[in-house]
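2 proteins. here.
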Amino acid sequence: MSQLPTTDTTRINLQSANAVNYWCQALNCSETRLRNAVLAVGVLPADVRAYLNR
């Protein structure tokens, strides 16, 4: 069972370790891939998901 984040789930906050852990788990990716995706397309989860799935 995944943990519910205590942060905003409408944007990916790379400054919060809890948020990074949540998004890595939710998007099934490494922290490096998550950070690179956010740098490439921004902080919106739908954009990051699409980038990671391409």
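next one coming up
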Amino acid sequence: MGYEAERDAVRLVSDEGQVLAEVTFPQVEPAIVEINHTFVDESLRGQGVAGELLARAASAIAASGFRARPTCSYAVSWFEKNPERADLLA
């Protein structure tokens, strides 16, 4: 099991290649992505996986020089709980 990052998503993938959790953040405007989806498989819920994915997504977005517009309810809540990442908000 391991994390994989792409241009518009961060995923946790099983050794068999199954997506167990993901955060998607497609580009919606120049230099702005929308964090629009967070998913965690039932077997991993309550273990901090979504928070880890959001942290990895925030790092990827920051590294790209983009800013984020969270529309997924989990992402909105994550940014409220992590005010030190507010500099990423569009």
